[in-house]
Amino acid sequence: MKITVMTADEQIITLEVDSNESVENLKALLEVETRVPLQHQQLLYNGREMRNSDKLSALGVKDEDLVMMVSAAASSASANDMSFNPDGSAVNPGAFQQHIRRDSNLMAQLFQRDPELAQVVLGNDLNRLQDILRERHRQRADLQRQKEEELALLYADPFDVEAQKRIEASIRQKGIDENWEAALEHNPEGFARVVMLYVDMEVNGVPLKAFVDSGAQSTIISKSCAERCGLLRLLDQRYKGIAHGVGQSEILGRIHVAPIKIGNIFYPCSFLVLDSPNMEFLFGLDMLRKHQCSIDLKDNVLRVGGGEVSVPFLQEKDIPSRFLDEERYSKQTSSSGAPVLSGTTDNRNHMSTGGQSSGGSHAEKAQGPDFEVKVAKLVELGFGRDAVIQALKLFDGNEEQAAGFLFGG
């Protein structure tokens, strides 16, 4: 039968051999053709090494099949390139990176199991790759040490109080880990960030995106926003004070009444004016009560005037990224009629954007100037744009976890 042998330097050699020929004899023929000593040859068929004692027929080699030949020295060098240092870093990080990149199945598994490492492999920072590999080595060592400690506890003296405390702590941690895994499997949306509630309004004829916060006692407008809306001339400075909450901010005064437009209807509204450049306009509980508003999360709308007007809450893409910073900085509380607010009005956490209870400050991370960059990078991997956006939202803007989720899907 006729077989083709391709050498490491891409030389093509065609040989006539018997199907019952041994691999050792085949190497002897190749030694004549290539001048590579038999003991320095390594032959591969379908990716598997061919041992000297094997028969070609037993390995499944057929007529017109291809056999790869690499030198043992090259194979040894390749193996060395893929080896690791004692600290877990790669001996040859560049070769390690290219090897992983070329294997699509391995990349898919890596995105599933370790999206952070997968993203670094796709990047160009070899120093970062080495750091991640060292970190993973330390984590494996810690895990192994933990397992050894748990095993040692099984044989600990049952009357040793400290040993029993460690066993109890270990059992408790296992319960927590199992609970986390169950939540990740059955309730993954619980790990997604929550987009805060914004609606389109007009204040004194100026269009604004209002942050709806039923946990904030009073409606708030910043000094710069009030000036832009032409309302600063109405500021009553007799209501100066300090607003206390999770943080505090100076109250510059109060605007007693001004028109706001929700949908197609105008409503009177009063505001506290705060010296808070990072918070623009917050529609608080005082006006929500006054105008009989209801937050309908099923239909995702704000109903005003007992239902005479319904305006939809804005989608994340419609909320300017700079507005999301308001959720971290609107930490004040308010109280109608009081010139100085002492924080005794039972909204200790509320003014921080529906407060800490809604996790607002964490919600800004995925949506920002780099959000579209993340979307574009994942779309380039072959995923649909809508699926990419949903995955990024699900994993709080974490590009690596989103990619792992998409690969796994």
TrEMBL record:
The keyword Protease applies. SMART domains: UBA, UBQ. It is found in: Cytoplasm. Residues 331-355 have a biased composition (Polar residues). One of its GO terms (molecular function) is aspartic-type endopeptidase activity. Keywords: Aspartyl protease, Cytoplasm, Hydrolase, Protease. Residues 368-409 form the UBA domain. Pfam families: Asp_protease (PF09668), UBA (PF00627), ubiquitin (PF00240). One of its GO terms (cellular component) is cytoplasm. Residues 1-76 form the Ubiquitin-like domain. Belongs to the DDI1 family. This is Protein DNA-DAMAGE INDUCIBLE 1.
